[in-house]
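Weekly sync notes, structure subgroup
Attendees: PM, AL, DS (notes)

Item 1: joint prediction request from the bench team. They want all two components modeled as one assembly rather than separately. Inputs as received:
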Amino acid sequence: MWKLRYSALVLWTLAAVNSAAAHVGEGGELHWNVEAWVIVSLTAAMMLYGFGLRSMRIRRGGRSIVGRVEIATFVGGIASLVVALLSPLDALGAELFSGHMVQHLVLMLVAAPLFVRARPLIVFLWALPRGTRKALGRLWSGGGLGGFFKILTAPLSVWLAFCGLFAFWHLPRPYSWALAHEPVHVVEHLCFFVSAFAFWSVVIEPSGRRRLDYGATLLFVATAAILSALPGALMVLTSRAFYPAHAEGATRWGLTLLEDQHLAGLIMWIPAGFVYMAAIGILFVLWLRASEKRAAASLQKYAAMSSTVVLLLVVAGCEEVTGVQSPSNVTPVPASFDGDPGRGAVVIAQTGCGSCHTIPGITGANGLVGPPLTQMGRRIYVAGLLRNTPDNMVTWLRDPQVVVPGNAMPNMGLQDQQARDIAAYLYTLQ
Amino acid sequence: MSDISMTHAPTSGAAVRPSPLPVGSIGHKASGWWGMLTIILTEGSLFSYLLFSYYYFAVQYGREWLPSEPPKFRLSLPNTIILIVSSVVVWWAERGAKRGSWGQLVLGLLGGFILGCVFVVIQLFEWKDKPFTYASSAYGSLYFTITGFHMAHVVAGLVILLMLLVWSLMRYFDSERNAPVSIGAIYWHFVDVVWLTVFFSLYITPYLG
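Output from the run, pasted for the record:
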């Protein structure tokens, strides 16, 4: 099976290289770029992603943490890399400085965030055979590699690398150095792509476990936006040309060297600013929404506390009068609650809740990471915060990171009905 | 009669003295911490503007605006390394404070303070070496304004480190209540990062422009 995959990879790559080679020289000046290594890496990435998705589907019983959005953004990311590295835009970038800046912005502000959203690393990992996956995991947790990576991907390091590399490669000398030497050019583009991938990972955080809360992320993006607008501003505000390597190309396109540079500066300043503004706007909305949810959750908490107090007073004070003697002090599941315990048990098994929780009635559910869910139907609180009602249970299951930010329970991406079925099952545990 | 006065009342010859009440917040998220972050924000903006004006002049007037020989690394490079090391030492001191190691805290703060003083002295020699003054050209004005503003921030940092050192010697901090150490340390790291951007702009970019 594994050998088959490798040979398929090689064949597909060769086919891709051949078909792309047919485009050489068709468009005169602006031709498609046929650099083999770019095509090979893009094809390899696509195949790894495909294999990863397949083996996730098989091993996790038809359910996968990667859904349509991830696949769509992965395709979008690949398409934007094709535009940036293989389409005539690459040739235009060799001619015009402004064209080259568009290429850089596609790499940093379009391709990188799309790939972050696609969660490629986790899918690539699934494409590897089980033994290799385990070995990588051991290397990660045992070999100290994880600690090094943690420092490297700390938000502050990421911010410094993103802003620093962006500024450095746009200084005249490093820029012309990259333009003159292809390997340096590759390193330059890798710097942009990798630092941007790390940057947007902090911003988007597709796992749902945010390292920075929304307010801090907003500052993270806003400060980077201001700093990366400065090189563009400097290019516009001068009457000196800094990138003489583009002199011939600019003339061919009917621009003076300075006009080309001013255009490039404006592109770096304004369209790039729109992308940052959009990110800031989205973060702002998410920030407000999260604080609203938190406020609602704490209101529910107080409501739960006061109703418990009332209940206790009632029980203590006028027992014989009211006869409040229900076997549990938890709201029973109302008849209107739509959830199927049988389906819930299946969803629990498929989602793998049992790898962290001990759950009676589910085979293999003996995890010791989270609290045991024995007698869940009789417990007073969900997550130590929300009153244990079916609806609160659904809220918690669907979005645990919003209810208690930073807690160990990951967002499992459950649909509303799935969460209802799970809640229905958990309430059978009396 | 309240409980407190009762504990003060001598019962059998030896006075029972209650230990003094702890002062300061637990952990570093004190109001001083947020205050320091806002100072860092405003001072960071100040240096951004200063460096932007440097770059603005550089792109307007090009090579001939820079002094005939670009800034040298003989003193500035070792000085940069000294400042980075001082940041590491202060970070080590802060870790000591959190672990409750008094010796590590005092030694780290003392080390940071001495390294900071060395930086100031070397920087004074660097200034003396310059063939231009703050009044001789636009470049000279910007050079001394930017490095001067940075120097002022270093001196403020030294005062902070000295006060932290004195307070540490007086045993003001323990493993729980050490917010001032974290607040002073973050300022010192900020001064260090600002120097790295100043060093990159004034000393390295002339070779990359």
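Discussion: The mean pLDDT of chain B is 89.
Action: AL to compare against the crosslinking data before next sync.
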